[in-house]
Structure formats: C-alpha cells, structure tokens
Amino acid sequence: MSDESVDARIERLVAEEQELRDSEQEDGLNEERLERDRQRLEALEIELDRCWDLLRQRRALRDAGGNPDDAHVRDANTVERYLQ
Q1: What is the rounded distance in angstroms from the CA atom of residue 80 to the CA atom of residue 63?
Q2: How far apart are alpha carbons 40 and 1 in whole angstroms?
C-alpha cells in the first residue's frame, strides 16, 4: 500500500466521520440511529488510528533508509494502547 493510498483512505474516513458527526444532531431524536452512529464513529476512529500508524511506519522506514513496503497494518489493540 503506497503513502498515497493510505492518504486517500484517511481522507475517506475523515469525510465519513464528519458526515456522522453532522448527522448526530438529526439522529439525536432516534436513540437506535444515534447508537449506531456512535458505534460507527468509534470504528472510524480506530481505523483512522491504524491508518496514521501505518503512514508513520512507512515514513520512518523511508527516513531510516529502509523499504516503506515493509510497514504493516497493526491490529487495533496494539494501536489503541499507544500512549499519546
């Protein structure tokens, strides 16, 4: 996966996240839809973290003279346990 494809994936996820956040006000009257939106937002945030992690790995490998294609997508548990 190239940097450009990771960037494109991030852009799509951010756009979907924004749409869900915008629709939260409308969905606030429907508890079932609101919960579904919240679950999707949580999944989006995790996927975004994984994409950013992959992009950082690729850049670090490149900067260190390595092959960015050696980077791999880490599982959600690993990425979500990083300290901020």
Answers
A1: 24
A2: 24
Residues of the domain holding 42? 3-80
Question: What's the number of domains the chain is made of?
Answer: 1
- What pLDDT digit, counting tens, does each position of 5-61 carry? 999 999 999 999 999 888 877 766 788 888 888 899 999 999 999 999 999 999 999
Entry pTM: 0.85
Closest CA to 5 of 78, 75, 73, 60: 73
Residue 15 and residue 80 in contact, taking contact as beta carbons nearer than 8 Å: no
Of 79, 8, 1, which Cα lies nearest the Cα of 47? 79
